[in-house]
Fold:
Amino acid sequence: MKKILCALFLLAFTVPSFAQEVEKTEFTAYYGETTVNNQSSYIPDFRIDGKNAKVRNVILLIGDGMGLAAVNAGMYANGGALTLTNLHTYGYVRTQSDDNFTTDSAASGTAYATGRKTNNGYIGKDPDKNDIPNIPEKLESYGIACGVISTDNLNGATPAAFFAHQESRNATAEIWADLPDARLDFVSAGSMPVFEEQSDSTRTAILERYTLVKNVDAVDNAAAPVLFLPPSVALDERGDYLPRTTRAAIEYLSKQSKKGFFLMVEGARIDKEEHSNNTDGFVREMLDFDKAIEEAIRFAEKDGHTLVIISADHETGGVALRGGDPEKGYIRTAFASTSHTAITVPLFAYGPQSQQFRCFQENSDVSNKIVKILTGK
Ligand SMILES: [Zn+2]
Structure:
């Protein structure tokens, strides 16, 4: 009896102190910091923002893994402002998938693309594995031009959700093989080397359907649909690919249809850098994404009938801000995870009907609102 009591006594003191020790070790391991050079941020006039006016075009920008802390880290590292945080209309988005409290990019990408929640891993399929129509498919009969851009490979979960229907996000060959049936007028994502790895029959089918261009300047005069595959989408190698291609796509899609356009732009690698708890990497990706946001906002301001929505498919890394100095562009972070987390993500909107997004909403709601705003249905 004495022995048992003694063991219990020991246990009572050992377990809590052991738990504390683990917590401390994890925190130290997931610490990060960066100092970056400031880039300019753009402040639009807000004449059209939140107005009950006709929307002809929608630009949806998805920062993969862009939680509120990632936005904050980018903002403070950039001296206290981003084009994103200059906007006036905000909401929140719940990201849970049909079968998991913590979504993956496939389920959340599918929710954004189709307006339906599904299981983690599924692309353009409902939980019963039936194909579900994506926004470009829903808009086809309305004559609205559609485009997709990503800094991920084209078979990545988010871009794939806007054209493919597969049970697994890892079905790379099958996702590429779905591209010829896509209802897209403009496609750009990684990369030329990945395209060249695809089978002869897939490449032939894609080249029969698309005008393949080797650089962004060739987009302008290319017959639709156009496919631009950069040599690389890595941050150090792609230069201004994301903002430059966003601008080219907006110009191209504007000319394709008088009925309007829908464009999805993904900043895919915020997530990838958070998975590896790389503070410098995700902050740089965040700032690059903000340059693409600026292109969309500048166009919307000028056009007057364009709604811009910026949100995320989920948070990644459980990022926390531990300190910083906005004047020096210095930020210090900690990470609670190397995976996705389940917290709601922020949404920012600009343009007519932006007021419809000023609430807590599901990722699938965002998709359904976009279709309703563009088609009335
Ligand atoms: Zn994701």
